[in-house]
Amino acid sequence: MTSIPVSSPASLAVFRRILTHGPLGRVDISRATGLSQAAVTKAVTPLLSAGFVVETDIDRAAPSIGRPVNPLAIAAHRAHIVGIKVTADRTYGVLTDLGANVLARAERANASPAVEDVVAAAVDILSSLRTSSEAAIDGVGAAVSGDVDRTRGIVRDSPLLGWRDVPLAAQLEAEMGIPVILENDVRALTVTQLFFGAGRDADSFAVVTVGTGVGCGLYLNGKVVQGSHGVAGEIGHLPLGPAHARCSCGRLGCVEAVASTAAIVNSVRKDKKDPTLEASDVFALAHAGDASAHKAFERAGGMIGLALATLVNLVGPSTVIIAGENVTEYELYEKHLRATFAEHAFGTASECEIVLRPHNFDDWARGAAACVIETIASGGSVTSPVKQHLN
Description:
It contains twelve helices and 15 strands.
């Protein structure tokens, strides 16, 4: 199984710095990690020998005094990973290298949301992606909405899929013959932002997704927060909404019951007395100035702003990254989101930066692949910890 040939904290820090910020000279790595140049050289030597890091010649053409600088970079071809994002009706997959660069993509319609049909779609995607690369696949990451136990590879509760206590990692491994890391989809996106996106240099941040659901991933105190019971950052299920509003999770008053795509669409359907309206119709109505659609987006924006203020007041991230399918329609609810956030954020918490990162389902799948890369960068190997749960 793929693993880097180092395990000391210094070596891991060096590898991670090169992975997230490379190509970098040894002096730059030394400054960023606080290690001496001698310690950096010692840490890099086995990585170079094993082919995980390479010396580049990108600075050779530039004038220099003394010894030429050869920045260090990740050998992206050293590992190949498949990331899979599961939704109720479609499954998406990407093939990436060690640098999370997408090399190929595939998607399949699920025959149904049943576990066996989703597994079949994922296996078909893996087969398709394998044909686009001669390299072996080192690991598979799978991202699913809901309460996910990454350690045991179990989807404990996914309201959007209708699953409870599904040992998905083990079932995928049995069909694929490759180790699988299972993660909550929003936490997977958070890992992507931490290693390859807006969170690379942040001391703390949150990723809030707005679309089919309202999710949140947290990076605090040097770690992506998992939660003692596998649940953390579920701002979509904060009870901040109207007491009568029923959420897809079955509870009343959740943020999602007002702010999710389904909630917005259902609100407009009710006002228009037209049950055939789809999300695209509602977006078009809102852009055309329809009062019912505008009202639904205003309510959603206010609810998301209240949820963000609650989040920032509680944990104090320096940045909130807003992502998800509805980010492309951000202007429809931005005004009310920011106004409500400013009204309820306490003191200097209101200085938290809110940034947008539009993405699509391939980016969700890339997040799943990033979880495998995270494991490799943490000194672990992509192994199977979940076979005992297969029956």
